[in-house]
Amino acid sequence: MCWRSGYWDANDAVAGCDGELVSPVMKTIAPALAAAPAIAAEQPVAPAVVAQCEFTLASDSIFSFGKAILSKAAKQEIDKNTIAKLLNCGGAKVILVTGYTDHLGTDAYNRKLSTQRAASVASYLKSKGVNNRIETKGAGAAEPIVTCSNKLSIQKRIACLSPNRRVVIKIQ
Question: In 3D, which of 99, 89, 88 has the Cα closest to residue 62?
């Protein structure tokens, strides 16, 4: 195999490799580097600030228990508050949408449901003209907000665990 670098010239020719001996790249000389301006020691350099906004959509008003389909109330909440907040958050590059569930059900079921919920919110945001890159993630029952007694009836436990069922939108 014959290889040429960007600095190849006819003097570097190898018999059997270079045929017509035509240089593939013109040899260029880089310009001298400009001197960097001196920064006074007493002038601190401020770190770059990355704007970050975070919104939580409460799942009981957003989704029915065990469902990932946005309710009418959810769409109104997103239209009324969330999209306006997105616009006020500045030049958001990435929107991370994370779905959460309560601990009822298996880990696999909760991961799948939380991923579907995040995808529903992301899809709705896209349909409303949000053109930022949106990443979705299903966190399942991770990071619970409340814990409830297992001695409660299933209906009361479902109601008690309601704050854990949510979708968090983080803008960076």
Answer: 99
Provide the 8-state DSSP code for 82.
Answer: I
Which residues, at least 6 apart from 118, have a Cβ–Cβ distance to it below 8 Å? 97, 98, 99, 136, 137, 138, 167
**Interior angle at CA 49, CA 45 and CA 50, nearest 5:** 155
Show the domains of the chain with their CATH numbers: 53-171 (3.30.1330.60)
Neighbour tally for 143: CB within 10 Å: 11
pLDDT per residue rounded down to tens, the chain (172 residues): 677 766 667 777 777 676 655 555 555 565 666 665 655 555 555 444 444 588 888 766 777 788 888 888 888 888 887 777 776 776 667 889 999 998 989 999 999 999 999 999 999 989 988 888 899 999 999 999 999 888 989 899 988 888 888 899 888 7
